[in-house]
Automatic annotation (TrEMBL):
Record-linked InterPro entries: CLIC_N (IPR053823), Glutathione-S-Trfase_C_sf (IPR036282), Thioredoxin-like_sf (IPR036249)
Name used for this protein in its record: CLIC N-terminal domain-containing protein
Membrane-related topology note: Single-pass membrane protein
CDD domains: GST_N_CLIC
CLIC N-terminal domain segment(s): 21-104
Subcellular location: Membrane
GO (cellular component) term, any one: apical plasma membrane
Family indicated by similarity: Belongs to the chloride channel CLIC family.
Primary localization class, coarse: membrane
Pfam families membership: CLIC-like_N
Origin: domain of life: Eukaryota
Organism expressing this protein natively: Acyrthosiphon pisum (Pea aphid)
Keywords: Membrane, Transmembrane, Transmembrane helix
GO molecular function list: chloride channel activity
């Protein structure tokens, strides 16, 4: 296992008014080098949740990567063969995604404020990832247009809301869920299908620009190569027309965090 650097998130564990609990998050490591952050969406989502709390100094955060291709001898026995993400709070391991969310909301200091209730937003971002996977599998106009239609709905919501994030001017759990999925759409969509988000989705791009400027996203974001490799390893995508000539394991890690050059968002700031 390897500890991930999380600048600004790892404090000394104490504040003037008392002890700050240390939370450890175990995440999947890169399938390329077995050490850096992997491309697990849920791992990044909870990394972002906890990073935000660490920035507020309600917790001290430690992030550990585990190579699931060669896990430590005691890993499976300690965690009942459950794969990451795994949250450890005061020696207690919290397994399974829904239980991790519930634990952060109810037991981690400050976590309750992250988990806002908004049925409209919850419905809005639901099924976005499944539409990405369908597009990568089908590679047809129907699946492409379905994903584009979903992205336009998110863009329209952001336009009407006119806030930095999905529910307001501060981040919440929905942002930590949506942004990693948008990143997968950008990177995997571009690599496998030359798919790009239209520049007329102005409010969606502005949203992504805000997210790219935040440590909570950049510190938790996997390399482009890990996102690509993640999909190459999925059996359904190992079919025809998948570009296999590039060798991600030989490349220097890169991170797509740019905004299209022809999209001037400064006037929207």
């Amino acid at each position: 296992m390897a500890d991930e650097d999380a600048p600004h998130a790892n404090g000394n564990g104490h504040e003037e008014n008392g002890h700050v609990p240390e939370i450890e998050l175990i995440i999947k490591a890169s399938t390329i080098d077995g050490r850096r952050k992997g491309a697990c969406l849920f791992c990044q989502e909870y990394f972002m949740d906890l990073y935000l709390l660490a920035e507020l100094k309600t917790i001290s955060l430690k992030v550990t990567t585990v190579d699931m291709q060669k896990p430590p001898p005691d890993f499976r026995s300690n965690f009942d063969a459950n794969p990451p993400p795994i949250l450890i709070d005061n020696g207690m391991a919290v397994l399974e995604n829904e239980k991790i969310e519930r634990h952060i909301m109810k037991n981690v200091p400050g976590g309750y404020n992250l988990f806002v209730q908004d049925k409209e937003v919850a419905t809005l971002i639901e099924n976005l990832y499944s539409k990405l996977k369908l597009m990568l599998l089908k590679k047809d106009d129907v699946s492409i247009n379905s994903l584009l239609s979903h992205l336009r709905k998110i863009n329209l919501h952001l336009e009407k809301k006119n806030t930095r994030f999905l529910t307001g001017d501060t981040m919440c759990c929905f942002d930590c869920e949506l942004m990693p999925r948008l990143q997968h759409i950008r990177v995997a969509g571009k690599y496998f299908m030359d798919f790009q988000m239209p520049t007329d989705l102005r409010y969606l791009w502005r949203y992504m620009l805000h997210m790219y400027q935040l440590d909570a996203f950049t510190q938790s974001c996997p390399a482009d190569q890990d996102i690509v490799n993640h999909y190459k390893q999925q059996q359904n995508l190992m079919l025809q027309n998948v570009k296999m000539k590039k060798h991600e394991e030989l490349e220097t890690p890169t991170f797509t965090t740019s905004i299209p050059v022809d999209l001037d968002l400064q006037q929207d700031e």
